[in-house]
Amino acid sequence: MSNPYTPLPSTTVLHDGRQMTLRRLGSDDANALLHFGEQLPQDDWLYLENDLRAVDVVKRLTNAHGADHWRQIVACEGTTIAAYASVRMLTGRSSHVANVQLIVGEAWRRNGLGRVMGQVVFAEAQHLHASKVVAEMLEAQRSGQAIFARLGFRIEGTLRGHARDRFGNRHNVVVMATLLN
Ligand SMILES: CC(C)(COP(=O)(O)OP(=O)(O)OC[C@H]1O[C@@H](n2cnc3c(N)ncnc32)[C@H](O)[C@@H]1OP(=O)(O)O)[C@@H](O)C(=O)NCCC(=O)NCCS
Questions:
Q1: pLDDT per residue as tens digits for the range 22-33
Q2: Ligand 1 center to 137 CA (angstroms)
Q3: SS (H, E, C) 5-36
Q4: Is ligand 1 within 6 A of the CB of residue 114?
Q5: Beta strand ranges found along the chain (DSSP E)
Q6: SS3 of 98, please?
Protein backbone atom coordinates (compact mmCIF):
# COMPACT_ATOMS: atom_id res chain seq x y z
CA MET A 1 0.00 0.00 0.00
CA SER A 2 1.47 3.37 -0.92
CA ASN A 3 1.68 6.00 1.75
CA PRO A 4 3.15 9.34 0.70
CA TYR A 5 5.93 10.70 2.85
CA THR A 6 4.67 13.41 5.19
CA PRO A 7 7.33 15.88 6.22
CA LEU A 8 7.62 16.44 9.94
CA PRO A 9 6.79 18.40 11.98
CA SER A 10 3.10 18.28 11.20
CA THR A 11 -0.11 18.79 13.14
CA THR A 12 -3.26 16.75 13.56
CA VAL A 13 -6.56 17.25 15.36
CA LEU A 14 -7.91 14.33 17.39
CA HIS A 15 -11.53 13.17 17.30
CA ASP A 16 -12.14 15.11 20.54
CA GLY A 17 -10.66 18.33 19.14
CA ARG A 18 -7.28 18.28 20.83
CA GLN A 19 -4.49 19.56 18.60
CA MET A 20 -1.28 17.56 18.41
CA THR A 21 2.11 18.27 16.92
CA LEU A 22 3.95 15.33 15.39
CA ARG A 23 7.71 15.70 15.22
CA ARG A 24 10.93 13.78 15.54
CA LEU A 25 12.23 12.92 18.98
CA GLY A 26 14.97 15.39 19.90
CA SER A 27 18.03 15.23 22.12
CA ASP A 28 16.34 17.50 24.68
CA ASP A 29 13.23 15.30 25.01
CA ALA A 30 14.57 13.02 27.75
CA ASN A 31 12.51 14.48 30.61
CA ALA A 32 9.30 14.64 28.58
CA LEU A 33 9.80 11.06 27.37
CA LEU A 34 10.45 9.84 30.90
CA HIS A 35 7.28 11.56 32.06
CA PHE A 36 5.38 9.89 29.22
CA GLY A 37 6.80 6.52 30.28
CA GLU A 38 5.88 7.01 33.91
CA GLN A 39 2.25 7.73 32.98
CA LEU A 40 1.74 4.58 30.87
CA PRO A 41 -0.46 1.82 32.25
CA GLN A 42 1.62 -0.76 34.11
CA ASP A 43 0.79 -3.64 31.82
CA ASP A 44 2.03 -1.79 28.74
CA TRP A 45 5.56 -2.45 29.96
CA LEU A 46 5.19 -6.16 29.52
CA TYR A 47 4.70 -5.78 25.82
CA LEU A 48 7.13 -3.06 24.87
CA GLU A 49 10.74 -3.38 23.83
CA ASN A 50 11.97 -0.25 25.58
CA ASP A 51 11.21 0.65 29.18
CA LEU A 52 10.53 4.36 28.89
CA ARG A 53 10.60 4.69 32.69
CA ALA A 54 14.33 3.95 32.80
CA VAL A 55 16.66 6.94 32.57
CA ASP A 56 19.40 5.02 30.73
CA VAL A 57 16.94 3.66 28.16
CA VAL A 58 15.45 7.09 27.51
CA LYS A 59 18.92 8.60 27.23
CA ARG A 60 19.86 5.96 24.65
CA LEU A 61 16.74 6.74 22.63
CA THR A 62 17.14 10.51 22.71
CA ASN A 63 20.85 10.18 21.88
CA ALA A 64 19.91 8.10 18.83
CA HIS A 65 17.82 10.88 17.32
CA GLY A 66 20.28 11.29 14.44
CA ALA A 67 20.86 7.57 13.71
CA ASP A 68 20.66 6.62 10.01
CA HIS A 69 18.71 3.41 10.46
CA TRP A 70 16.27 4.57 13.13
CA ARG A 71 13.45 7.11 13.21
CA GLN A 72 11.61 8.09 16.37
CA ILE A 73 8.51 10.24 16.33
CA VAL A 74 6.54 11.80 19.13
CA ALA A 75 3.10 13.39 19.21
CA CYS A 76 2.93 16.32 21.60
CA GLU A 77 0.17 18.32 23.17
CA GLY A 78 2.01 21.48 24.05
CA THR A 79 5.20 20.30 25.72
CA THR A 80 3.69 16.97 26.84
CA ILE A 81 4.48 13.83 24.87
CA ALA A 82 1.27 11.95 24.14
CA ALA A 83 2.58 9.18 21.89
CA TYR A 84 5.85 7.63 20.79
CA ALA A 85 6.59 5.63 17.67
CA SER A 86 9.78 4.23 16.23
CA VAL A 87 10.94 2.42 13.15
CA ARG A 88 14.29 0.71 13.13
CA MET A 89 16.01 -1.21 10.37
CA LEU A 90 17.16 -4.65 11.44
CA THR A 91 20.67 -5.91 10.72
CA GLY A 92 22.42 -8.78 8.90
CA ARG A 93 20.20 -11.04 6.79
CA SER A 94 17.17 -8.92 7.74
CA SER A 95 18.73 -5.54 6.96
CA HIS A 96 15.87 -4.86 4.51
CA VAL A 97 13.29 -5.28 7.30
CA ALA A 98 12.03 -2.46 9.51
CA ASN A 99 10.55 -3.05 12.95
CA VAL A 100 7.85 -0.64 14.02
CA GLN A 101 6.69 0.22 17.51
CA LEU A 102 3.84 2.46 18.50
CA ILE A 103 2.46 3.53 21.84
CA VAL A 104 -0.17 6.13 22.69
CA GLY A 105 -0.57 7.48 26.21
CA GLU A 106 -3.75 6.36 27.91
CA ALA A 107 -5.22 9.86 28.11
CA TRP A 108 -5.10 10.21 24.30
CA ARG A 109 -6.31 6.74 23.23
CA ARG A 110 -9.42 6.02 21.14
CA ASN A 111 -9.17 9.43 19.47
CA GLY A 112 -7.43 8.55 16.23
CA LEU A 113 -3.88 9.33 17.35
CA GLY A 114 -2.70 5.72 17.00
CA ARG A 115 -3.94 5.64 13.42
CA VAL A 116 -2.16 8.89 12.52
CA MET A 117 1.06 7.81 14.23
CA GLY A 118 0.86 4.46 12.43
CA GLN A 119 0.63 6.24 9.09
CA VAL A 120 3.56 8.50 9.92
CA VAL A 121 5.81 5.72 11.16
CA PHE A 122 4.95 3.57 8.15
CA ALA A 123 5.87 6.44 5.85
CA GLU A 124 9.17 6.74 7.72
CA ALA A 125 9.82 3.03 7.11
CA GLN A 126 9.29 3.60 3.40
CA HIS A 127 11.59 6.58 3.53
CA LEU A 128 14.26 4.31 5.05
CA HIS A 129 13.76 2.06 1.97
CA ALA A 130 12.53 -0.89 4.01
CA SER A 131 11.15 -3.62 1.77
CA LYS A 132 9.38 -5.33 4.64
CA VAL A 133 7.86 -3.79 7.77
CA VAL A 134 7.03 -5.80 10.87
CA ALA A 135 5.10 -4.99 14.05
CA GLU A 136 4.50 -7.25 17.04
CA MET A 137 1.59 -6.82 19.40
CA LEU A 138 -0.66 -8.74 21.74
CA GLU A 139 -3.27 -10.86 20.01
CA ALA A 140 -5.82 -9.10 22.21
CA GLN A 141 -4.66 -5.67 21.06
CA ARG A 142 -7.44 -5.14 18.52
CA SER A 143 -6.90 -1.44 17.96
CA GLY A 144 -3.21 -2.02 17.21
CA GLN A 145 -4.15 -4.72 14.71
CA ALA A 146 -6.77 -2.42 13.15
CA ILE A 147 -4.15 0.30 12.67
CA PHE A 148 -1.67 -1.97 10.91
CA ALA A 149 -4.29 -3.89 8.93
CA ARG A 150 -5.44 -0.59 7.42
CA LEU A 151 -1.86 0.01 6.32
CA GLY A 152 -1.81 -3.33 4.50
CA PHE A 153 -0.20 -5.48 7.19
CA ARG A 154 -1.32 -9.08 7.63
CA ILE A 155 -0.73 -11.49 10.49
CA GLU A 156 2.28 -13.66 9.60
CA GLY A 157 2.33 -15.68 12.75
CA THR A 158 1.36 -16.07 16.36
CA LEU A 159 3.88 -16.52 19.15
CA ARG A 160 2.01 -18.52 21.73
CA GLY A 161 2.32 -17.43 25.37
CA HIS A 162 5.09 -15.06 24.34
CA ALA A 163 4.21 -12.19 26.73
CA ARG A 164 3.69 -12.58 30.46
CA ASP A 165 1.81 -10.05 32.54
CA ARG A 166 2.48 -9.00 36.11
CA PHE A 167 0.13 -11.71 37.39
CA GLY A 168 2.08 -14.40 35.56
CA ASN A 169 -0.58 -14.91 32.88
CA ARG A 170 0.77 -15.62 29.42
CA HIS A 171 -0.55 -13.93 26.28
CA ASN A 172 -0.20 -14.65 22.59
CA VAL A 173 1.70 -12.15 20.49
CA VAL A 174 0.93 -11.68 16.81
CA VAL A 175 3.52 -10.71 14.24
CA MET A 176 2.04 -8.45 11.57
CA ALA A 177 3.98 -7.59 8.45
CA THR A 178 3.76 -6.12 4.99
CA LEU A 179 6.05 -6.45 1.99
CA LEU A 180 6.88 -3.31 0.05
CA ASN A 181 8.23 -3.04 -3.47
C1 LIG B 1 -2.65 0.28 20.01
C2 LIG B 1 -2.68 1.75 20.35
C3 LIG B 1 -1.45 2.41 19.73
C4 LIG B 1 -3.95 2.36 19.70
O5 LIG B 1 -3.90 3.78 19.86
P6 LIG B 1 -5.23 4.68 19.75
O7 LIG B 1 -4.81 6.10 19.67
O8 LIG B 1 -6.18 4.29 20.81
O9 LIG B 1 -5.80 4.20 18.32
P10 LIG B 1 -6.95 4.89 17.44
O11 LIG B 1 -7.84 5.71 18.29
O12 LIG B 1 -6.29 5.55 16.29
O13 LIG B 1 -7.76 3.62 16.94
C14 LIG B 1 -7.17 2.78 15.97
C15 LIG B 1 -8.19 1.88 15.34
O16 LIG B 1 -8.56 0.88 16.27
C17 LIG B 1 -9.97 0.82 16.34
N18 LIG B 1 -10.28 0.35 17.67
C19 LIG B 1 -10.16 1.01 18.82
N20 LIG B 1 -10.49 0.20 19.83
C21 LIG B 1 -10.81 -1.00 19.30
C22 LIG B 1 -11.23 -2.23 19.82
N23 LIG B 1 -11.39 -2.43 21.13
N24 LIG B 1 -11.48 -3.25 18.98
C25 LIG B 1 -11.33 -3.10 17.64
N26 LIG B 1 -10.91 -1.92 17.09
C27 LIG B 1 -10.67 -0.90 17.91
C28 LIG B 1 -10.42 2.21 16.05
O29 LIG B 1 -11.76 2.25 15.59
C30 LIG B 1 -9.47 2.59 14.96
O31 LIG B 1 -9.85 2.01 13.73
P32 LIG B 1 -10.16 2.93 12.45
O33 LIG B 1 -8.89 3.68 12.18
O34 LIG B 1 -10.48 1.94 11.41
O35 LIG B 1 -11.29 3.82 12.86
C36 LIG B 1 -2.75 2.01 21.88
O37 LIG B 1 -3.84 1.31 22.42
C38 LIG B 1 -1.48 1.58 22.60
O39 LIG B 1 -0.55 2.36 22.67
N40 LIG B 1 -1.45 0.32 23.13
C41 LIG B 1 -0.26 -0.20 23.85
C42 LIG B 1 0.92 -0.45 22.92
C43 LIG B 1 0.60 -1.40 21.78
O44 LIG B 1 0.01 -2.44 21.99
N45 LIG B 1 1.01 -1.06 20.54
C46 LIG B 1 0.71 -1.92 19.40
C47 LIG B 1 1.44 -1.64 18.19
S48 LIG B 1 3.23 -1.88 18.32
A1: 999 999 999 999
A2: 11
A3: CCCCCEEEECCCCCEEEEEECCCCCHHHHHHH
A4: yes
A5: 10-13, 19-24, 70-77, 80-89, 97-104, 132-138, 154-164, 170-179
A6: strand
> Ligand 1 in contact with 137 (CB < 6 A)?
yes
∠ CA 47-10-23 to the nearest 5 degrees? 45
Query: How far, in Å, from the CA of 95 to the mean position of ligand 1?
Result: 28
Predicted confidence (pLDDT) per residue in 55-82, tens digit:
999 999 999 988 999 999 999 999 999 9
- The conformation of residue 128, written as its DSSP 8-state character, comes to T
All structural domains of the chain: 10-130 (3.40.630.30)
| Confidence (pTM) | 0.94
d(CA 103, CA 133): 17
